Write the structure tokens for this entry.
Amino acid sequence: MIRKKCSHCGKIFIRTNPKIRNVKFCSKQCKNKEHYKKYGAKYQRDMREKKLLEKYSKDELIQCKICGKWFRQVGSHIWGEHRITAREYREEYGFDVKRGQLPDDLKNLYAEQAIKCGGVKNLEIGAKFRFKKNQKGVGIYKRSEQTLKRLEKNRFNIKKKGIYKKCLVCGKEIYVMPSKINKTKYCSISCSNKDR
């Protein structure tokens, strides 16, 4: 009979079978607990990813560019696993810095929830704090490639919707939305006052 110390609980036990030499645990429970401690978290992560891939298509998931795993929301994974902020991740991999990494169906769901709970009102309240054109401090951060592409795309979409007219007083070209084509004649209030 050989006395040994359990690797998990530290209890002294007697090895009954002399043929089996490499016995580390006093019971099957201790062996399972130690095994779970060593491999359980990794197994759970792998199973979670496998279930996500079974439940959702690849269009409804976002892939982490660092480790290649799939998630519904990649931002919390980036901080939890890789210890970098979502903004640093977006800057590193060329994503739009001001937009979250979410699949389209989840974006639509969050938009509906914001409308239902009244979160949209916060956007109206915060409008007075937004940067104005030519305000000091605007553009102090470098825009990502994705942001520049989105802004360029939006600029061309706006041009298609409205038209350009000339101010009746100074002749300056102004952009007019389709709903205000007949109403807009001047580029500014001072021009409209001069014409009176």
Remarks:
- The mean pLDDT is 79.
